[in-house]
Amino acid sequence: MTNEKMGNESLEIKPKSTPKAIKIMEDVATRFRMLINESDEALNRRNREEYISKSRESANLLIGLSDQLKEAVNDLDENTKYSVIRQVETFASVAKRLLDSHSFAGMSAILNTKGDRIDDRNDLEKLIDKLRQRN
User: Fold this and answer.
1) Do the beta carbons of residue 111 and residue 93 sit within 8 Å?
2) Most confidently predicted of 76-80, 104-108, 125-129
3) How far apart are CA 7 and CA 84, in angstroms?
């Protein structure tokens, strides 16, 4: 926080705070990436149980994200709010479909756009980047 003098009054400038929705999404994105890496490692070790467990956990993380954001998105402007909700619900829908079909092979690519490399930012991370630019 800084103080600047304007005439006879002191003006306090507060740093812009990160909206709660972005913080929640960042936490989920970090956890999601970690789980996907762990599930890939389990698959490489041929540990099917751990692979399925980590894949389920990553799917449930995306499925639960919209509930976590319900109140937090109120910090965002209306257009951004509805855009975020729509995209997060799409992530959840795809995750639920993969989970229900026991199709864990697609879980690691669930947030990737066709043509993305493994180390590219996934769609949730790209959404967070866009929100940070607006904020």
Assistant:
1) no
2) 125-129
3) 42
Residue spans per domain, the chain: 19-134
Both tokens assigned to 31: 């956890």
**Phi and psi angles of residue 18, each rounded to the nearest 5 degrees, phi first:** -75, 130
Residue 68: C-alpha distances to residues 12, 17, 62, 75, 84 (Å): 33, 19, 10, 13, 12
Q: What percent of the chain has pLDDT over 70?
A: 86
Spatial distance between the Cα atoms of 90 and 132, rounded to a whole number of angstroms: 21
| Model confidence band, residue 6 (pLDDT cutoffs 50, 70, 90) | very low
d(CA 133, CA 106): 30
